[in-house]
Amino acid sequence: MSSKKMENSQRPMLLFLGIYIFSMQWILAHQQVNVALGGIATQSSVYLDCTASLAIDGIKETNAFAHSCTHTNTESNPWWRLDLLAVYDISNVIITNRGDCCPERINGAEIHIGNSLINNGNNNPSCDVIASMPAGASVNYTCNMQGRYVNVFIPIAGQILTICEVEVYGVAVSVSKKAFLKLKFNSNEDLRNPTVRDTILQKIKSASVHSSVVKVFQQKSHNHKYLYHNKYKNIASTSQQHNISGIYIFSMQWILAHQQVNLALGGIATQSSTYAIYNAFYAIDGNKETNANVYPCTHTNFQPNPWWKVDLLVVYKISNVIITNRGDCCPTRINGAEIHIGSSLINNSNNNPSMPAGASVNYTCNMQGRYVNVFIPIAGQVLALCEVEVYGVAVPVTKKAFLRLKFKSSEDLSNPTMRDKVLQKVCVCENIHSVVSL
């Protein structure tokens, strides 16, 4: 009787616990993050060192003198643009206005979202127009639009655009990517014979591999040999063909699964100082132009121990770093620069040799860290970088979520035996054991 009574008393508690766990799971599965933090920001011009990246640094300080807001020069149609690096379904954009002065400067600014870079992205569809915004305010604009670029610009002559923070919330649009591998092979069969050629191609297609991985096509080269996605030599039997084809397809699958991307493109760059318009983000914009008069490279002031840093936002196993030096002048300025990698501001480091003008030099690191620093530990130097590429893979991170609940029970939970029985029944509830740790 007492056992049945205990079970009845536990039902409301278990139902209550299940509802909250389901709610937590739903929230975790559907929560949106500020995707602007992983983007690359640029703007039409830069006043002093008020760079575009200050609007996506996660700091909503509204006093521009705290070096927390963007600022263009006075110009016609000033704009600010965020590259999210991928297409997103954007639900809303939050903009924080300057608070210490000049809140009216943002009046008339337009928010545009899309995938085009025509007119610097300002021709993309409009989400909203900022008629006015109080000083220091953060205003949420509902967009429900799709795009890679988020622009804020003022289509008026003689204006200054100042933004203290831009937040973009949404989810990435899934994209199917195809990779192609062209290989050349010899065969003892007469590949000029259409019947023989088609027979071989059909055998390769029917090999025991996933159809979504390999697509075979033919192309005639100048020496009348044929090029295919799969390499195949001396076809003697179906089993031999399968073995050789499988080896090369496995190799292609391994390459695709382990391919590395330039992680720096999604990071946030800063430097010790900024000369003129040569901001830190120019080293992670994907443009490897080495003539600073054609397209900007980074450039610090003349100072002791100049440095440049990219925050990759999470910890990576970094295999190599590629640095592109300035080519139009002054290649010796990078002499003595050191590359440091780690997860704090005091990092493990590698010493680097001097680089020839305009060169892109690959440095093997095989280190782990979130921050990549380039700095010259010498007094009275200028650091200029035209591009920094960082290659590696993310370090897996296990994240746990905890939920503390308070519930009442007719049982005496101060009794250790009774408490253990109740907790054990909670643990064996379906779909709860993976969420609740006792």
Question: Your description of this structure?
Answer:
The strands form three sheets. Strands 1, 2, 3, 4, 5, 6 and 7 form a seven-stranded antiparallel β-sheet that branches. With 438 residues, the chain is α+β, with helices and mostly antiparallel strands. It has four helices and 17 strands. It has helices at 2-30, 194-205, 238-258, 416-427, and strands spanning 33-34, 40-43, 79-96, 109-114, 126-130, 138-153, 165-172, 183-184, 219-220, 226-228, 261-262, 268-271, 307-324, 338-342, 348-351, 360-375, 387-394. The protein is 17% helix and 28% strand.
How many H/I helices? Answer: 4
Pattern of helices and strands: HEEEEEEEEHEEHEEEEEEEH
Helix-strand makeup class: alpha+beta
Number of strand elements: 17
Computed CA radius of gyration, to the nearest angstrom:
29 Å
**Approximate helicity band:** 10-25%
CA(first)-CA(last) distance: 28 Å
**Whole-number average pLDDT?**
75
- Morphology: globular
Report the biggest beta sheet as strand number plus sense, adding barrel if it closes. Answer: 7 strands, antiparallel
Low-pLDDT stretches? 176-181, 208-258, 347-356, 428-438
Strand content: 25-35%
